[in-house]
Design goal:
The protein is of the alpha/beta class and about 290 residues long. The chain has a single domain (about 5-285), classed as Spore Coat Polysaccharide Biosynthesis Protein SpsA, Chain A (Alpha-Beta Complex). Helix content is about 30%, strand content about 25%. The protein is built from 11 helices and 13 strands. It has helices spanning about 35-45, 60-65, 70-80, 85-90, 110-115, 120, 145-155, 215-220, 230-235, 260-270, 280-285, and strands spanning about 5-10, 30, 35, 50-55, 100-105, 125-130, 135, 155-165, 175-180, 185-190, 205-210, 245-250, 255. The chain has a 9-stranded mixed β-sheet with strand order 5-4-1-6-11-8-12-10-9. A two-stranded antiparallel sheet has the order 2-3. Strands 7-13 form a two-stranded antiparallel ribbon. Bound molecules: 1-O-phosphono-alpha-D-glucopyranose.
């Protein structure tokens, strides 16, 4: 079985929910404590053994490219001032030459279209997709690593899921579940943003995918789905029955950072895990 070596990060979205903060700053660069959202996803991919990072970007997103590049003046100044502890904070944003690639999605035609834009960079091998606004937090055993292990065992396609409240099922890709074995459930159907009351379960896709390259041929058809967009969910649903297809129930804490409340909660939760910040944050929370 081919190993999952490449990951796609769709980062072309406009981030309108965070305006005006995202007028000039990509939403993926908003920090949770002191690290931009996109770097949590990239760190997760690296921890799962991903070797090649592919960003599907758009206009106004060049801060992401700069973030994952050498910052020559900054690094030179820090070295000259003997600030090696600060230089260490930049480690996670460094990559071997050639291990990051960027491709532009010229028009916002949907997540399926964004993934399709990376087809020639992925080629004929399984790949991961990570949506950075879903901060899936389990630093000891990251979500994508959980999924890679399931992929090594079962092959085919693997999507991360969590149970959401019934009244939120119209916001997600929802799984029609088959047999369940521990945290792994067979997928019998997959539907994007079903109307309330029609969802086949409460198992929602939470922004992590391991996908077989056959999906590119289906995405190429450009069929429009929910919201008039080319949906990844619709193309994946067509692989069910032809290839193994499993949902991995994520073990860890999900922070929906595409949502303001979720984003603020993520900042509080992760700050409370930091020994240098925890006392001050906890003391402040008690006062309000
Ligand atoms: C996308 C996917 C959806 C998934 C969700 C997770 O939707 O299309 O299937 O459940 O991400 O965050 P979006 O949030 O981009 O509308």
């Amino acid at each position: 079985m081919k190993k999952v070596r490449k990951a796609i990060f769709p980062v072309a979205g406009l981030g309108t929910r965070f305006l005006p903060a995202t007028k000039a700053v990509p939403k993926e660069m908003l920090p949770v404590v002191d690290k931009p959202l996109i770097q949590y996803a990239v760190d997760e991919a690296r921890a799962a053994g991903i070797e090649q990072m592919i960003f599907v970007t758009g206009r106004g997103k060049s801060a992401i490219e700069d973030h994952f590049d050498i910052a020559y003046e900054l690094e030179d100044t820090l070295s000259a001032r003997d600030k090696s502890h600060l230089l260490e904070t930049l480690e996670g944003s460094r990559f071997a030459p050639g291990s990051i690639a960027y491709v532009r999605q010229q028009e916002p035609l949907g997540l399926g279209h964004a993934v399709w834009c990376a087809r020639d960079l992925v080629g004929d091998e399984p790949f991961a997709v990570l949506l950075a606004d879903e901060l899936l937090w389990n630093p000891g055993y990251p979500c994508l690593k959980q999924m890679v292990e399931t992929h090594e065992e079962k092959g085919g396609n693997v999507i991360a899921v969590l149970e959401v409240p019934e009244e939120h099922t119209d916001r997600y890709g929802i799984v029609d579940p088959g047999a369940r074995d521990g945290n792994v459930t067979e997928v019998r159907g997959f539907v994007e943003k079903p109307k309330l009351g029609t969802a086949p379960s409460r198992l929602a896709a939470v922004g992590r995918y391991i996908i077989q390259p056959a999906v590119f041929g289906l995405l190429a058809e450009g069929a429009r789905g929910a919201g008039g967009e080319i949906q990844l969910t619709d193309a994946l649903a067509r692989l069910i029955g032809k290839q193994p297809f499993h949902a991995q129930t994520f073990q860890g804490v999900r922070h929906d950072c595409g949502d303001k409340a979720g984003f603020i909660q993520a900042n509080i939760a992760l700050a409370l895990e930091r020994p240098d910040l925890e006392p001050a944050i906890r003391a402040f929370l008690k006062t309000i």
